[in-house]
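Lab intake sheet, docking and co-folding queue.

SAMPLE TYPE: protein with bound small molecule
LIGAND NAME: fe (ii) ion
LIGAND FORMAT: SMILES
REQUESTED OUTPUT: full 3D complex as structure tokens
PRIORITY: normal
SUBMITTED BY: R.K., bench team

The fields below were copied directly from the construct record.
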Amino acid sequence: MNQDDIATKARAFVQATAAAYGGHVQDTASRQSITRVFDALDGSETIQPQPPVRYDVCKWVNDVTVPEGLLGDVLDSFRALEPHLLWSRRTGSRANAGPGFEDGHANAMVVGKNALIRHDRVSLGVSLLAPNIRYPDHNHPPEETYLVLTEGDFFHGDSDWFTPGVGGSFHNTPMIQHAMRSGDTPLFAIWALWY
Ligand SMILES: [Fe+2]
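RESULT FIELD (auto-filled):
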């Protein structure tokens, strides 16, 4: 597969993701953040293909099902792009990580400083958890808007665990503590960060 084909697939994922966020965000902070994110992506970004890396846990993406339409377009475009992605394991704190976390999770960044689509102010990527995995508590300076494509629980700040559900979306303010956990099915979520 040549670089132009990978670029086309990556941009198709960004476009599908932009449309899905547009149709699913709930609150003003999310709306403002995703507007900043996707306005900054105009298709002129440098593409920097990387040697793909995949973990056993990535097979769980095959179990994800979403309704046709905006979410289906995101999932289809992700699956087309996935063979070209460099999946990675979280670096940094394991605070409150659950049993099996290391082998039970993977993240992939599509847009970002060192990602396939290079950008200094946007990170756009995905997290995948196998069933019954609890991701560590973490925080980061950029604000973040999630779009969730499966069941799974989240918390941020002082909130209890909540379940956005398929197509659910919520906003994390800068440095707010947050985490996610899967139940009996895998968790697959998209995140968009604005630096
Ligand atoms: Fe985060």
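REVIEWER NOTE: The radius of gyration is 15 Å.
SIGN-OFF: pending second check by T.M.
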